[in-house]
Q: What sequence folds into this?
């Protein structure tokens, strides 16, 4: 249907009567395509948002305590395990500071973007790119760590599957990728029940454990995993402090995922800032209780960190008195939430990538929405890179963790520093000035000083944690992130320069008057033989111009003579140029001839290369032909001043 915009305009809107593409295999995997108008109906409510965006943070309770114990075990004595609970309390305090900051970010920047947008708006481009690089790395590692940790829960209950952990992990990543390709709303609905099941079963386990602790019937882990090098160790003050800081930095993995809600505010129903803020507070409350509860009970039962059996498995086995149904519920719930925790990254990574691509720092394809109104390129890219990491590190959580939290704490620091500067700038404004049109525009805040101090203190705390993490985890692999982050920033800048150069080259700003459309049009038709395909290309060339030259590269004199005789019969007077090729080359002599034509080209002259292109009916038959047209197209596309047209012909 044609819908003219107005009677005098040469432009109009064309709407097809066909509303939906034909069905194919992708419809079965990711669902039927959605119209652009359906985007407003693909938002989610708070309870679904908790499952989508909080699963990463909540799932970290399954391995954060264990990672603290892994470091404390390095002290060589069980006595150090008692510090796991005090360290957890400090981490929960840090969680509160970060959540307060991100609550402010959600209301100040309701269009999402988190640390990247905050840093760009308040600190400049370079800090914003640092925040973006750190977050992208964190999202990739979120998928790798959470899925690997989930598979570790399975291998704890079924040790015979341990040697297949890498394959199982990659299959889970593929599964989560496909679910996310179906859309945010469907992914949230699919993950809501498992997420709330995990929360329920963990509260049941912690509640039962606390009751048994009070009643004195809890006991310790029966048949704990074997841990070598434990005994009575005597450490100096410096070594003691280093171990505690090292354990603290490992435990801060519990805070990863906190920023995801601020990046994905646009996924929530209206009022989206309010709904996102409430979801963030609920997530922090649940996360704090679960983390402290697991750490407290792990200390009480004297849990031992081990690759063979996770701390959560030891807790469930001890609290519920064996490997019964409740134990299996805990293992199942933990496994599922750890695997679904990757969904938080799949919700954040594509959105952040799309913002970077919109600003010209990543490939433009990442801004395109797929058939289900999600950023399909970003989702698939995340799944592929995370799978590669799992294969490289053999799905080992302990080997992946050192790469993990440093990036997110870098983004925490930049986000809070940006907010502190925003509040300072707000305090310098006129209190009587009119309120800006957009919510994220700067305006005077009555409590700007208190907010500035709050965010400044939070930035200081997270910066200290980042420094501790970088030092204590440097030799374990944190150096990789410290190198990868500037490399990624360099890639951003390289892409931006490319797009800027292209935009400058295509700009009409200083283009002047457009050239006249009338001019000389010369057409060149390369031919290797004279057949129906050649004549089809010649017929098309005659529609473009009367100035036509057929060019044949002479490799074998006998073949050239056959071409010449046939051309006299079928060429209908079109001139034929035969270019000798004594070294039996085809492309090079043709390119030399075209360059000679270009060097003598007149002003306002267009040269079109019409290439006959043989297209087999079966794709497998392509291997039986030289694909000369394809080679010509690749070579001539880089030649300035030349238009290339392919004329396909099929032989039944």
A:
């Amino acid at each position: 249907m044609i819908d003219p915009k107005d009677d005098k305009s040469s432009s109009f809107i064309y709407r097809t009567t066909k509303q939906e593409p034909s069905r194919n295999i992708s419809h079965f995997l990711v669902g039927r395509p959605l119209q652009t108008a359906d985007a407003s109906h693909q938002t989610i409510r708070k309870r679904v948002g908790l499952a989508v965006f909080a699963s990463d943070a909540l799932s970290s309770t399954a391995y954060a305590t264990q990672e603290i114990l892994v470091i404390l075990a390095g002290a060589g004595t069980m006595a150090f395990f008692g510090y796991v609970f005090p360290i957890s309390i400090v981490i929960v305090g840090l969680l509160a500071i970060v959540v307060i900051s991100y609550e402010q970010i959600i209301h100040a920047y309701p269009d999402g973007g988190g640390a990247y947008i905050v840093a760009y708006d308040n600190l400049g481009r370079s800090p914003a790119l640092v925040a973006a690089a750190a977050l992208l790395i964190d999202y990739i590692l979120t998928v790798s760590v959470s899925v690997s940790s989930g598979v570790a829960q399975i291998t704890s209950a079924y040790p015979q599957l341990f040697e297949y952990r890498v394959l199982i992990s990659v299959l889970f990543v593929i599964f989560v990728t496909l679910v996310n390709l179906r859309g945010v709303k469907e992914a949230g609905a699919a993950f809501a029940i498992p997420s709330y099941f995990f929360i329920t079963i963990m509260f049941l386990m912690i509640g039962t454990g606390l009751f048994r602790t009070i009643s004195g019937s809890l006991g310790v882990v029966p048949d704990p995993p074997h841990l070598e090098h434990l005994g009575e160790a005597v450490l100096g003050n410096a070594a003691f402090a280093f171990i505690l800081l090292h354990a603290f930095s490992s435990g801060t993995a519990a805070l990863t995922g906190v920023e995801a809600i601020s990046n994905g505010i646009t996924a929530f129903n209206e009022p989206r800032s309010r709904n996102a803020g409430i979801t963030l507070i609920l997530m922090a409350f649940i996360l704090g209780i679960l983390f402290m509860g697991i750490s407290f009970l792990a200390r009480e039962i004297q849990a031992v960190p081990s690759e063979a059996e996770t701390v959560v498995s030891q807790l469930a086995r001890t609290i519920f008195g064996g490997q019964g149904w409740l134990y299996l519920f805990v293992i199942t719930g933990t496994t599922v939430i750890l695997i679904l925790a990757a969904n938080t990254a799949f919700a954040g990574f594509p959105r952040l990538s799309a913002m970077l691509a919109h600003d010209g720092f990543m490939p433009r394809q990442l801004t395109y929405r797929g058939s289900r109104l999600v950023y399909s390129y970003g989702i698939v890219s995340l799944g592929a890179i995370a799978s590669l990491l799992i294969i490289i590190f053999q799905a080992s959580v302990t080997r992946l963790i050192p790469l993990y939290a440093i990036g997110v704490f870098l983004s925490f620091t930049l986000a809070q520093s940006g907010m502190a500067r925003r509040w300072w700038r707000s305090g310098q404004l006129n209190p009587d000035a009119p309120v800006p049109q957009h919510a994220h525009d700067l305006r005077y805040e009555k409590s700007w000083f208190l907010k500035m101090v709050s965010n400044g203190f939070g930035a200081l705390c997270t910066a200290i944690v980042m420094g501790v993490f970088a030092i204590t985890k440097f030799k374990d692999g944190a150096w990789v992130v410290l190198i990868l982050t500037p490399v990624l920033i360099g890639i951003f800048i390289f892409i931006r320069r490319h797009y800027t150069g292209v935009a400058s080259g295509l700009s009409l700003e200083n283009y002047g008057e457009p050239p006249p459309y009338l001019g000389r049009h010369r057409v060149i038709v390369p031919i290797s033989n004279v057949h129906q395909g050649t004549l089809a290309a010649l017929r098309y060339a005659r529609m473009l111009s009367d100035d036509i030259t057929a060019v044949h590269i002479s490799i074998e004199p006998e073949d050239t003579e056959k071409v010449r005789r046939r051309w006299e019969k079928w060429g209908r007077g079109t001139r034929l140029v035969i270019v000798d090729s004594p070294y039996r080359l085809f492309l090079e002599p043709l390119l030399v001839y075209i360059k000679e034509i270009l060097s003598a080209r007149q002003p306002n002259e267009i040269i079109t290369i019409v290439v006959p292109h043989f297209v087999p009916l079966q794709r497998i038959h392509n291997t039986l032909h030289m694909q000369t047209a394809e080679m010509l197209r690749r070579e001539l596309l880089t030649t300035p001043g030349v238009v290339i047209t392919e004329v396909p012909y099929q032989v039944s």
Notes: Strands lie at 2-4, 12-14, 520-527, 547-554, 575-580, 605-614, 642-649.
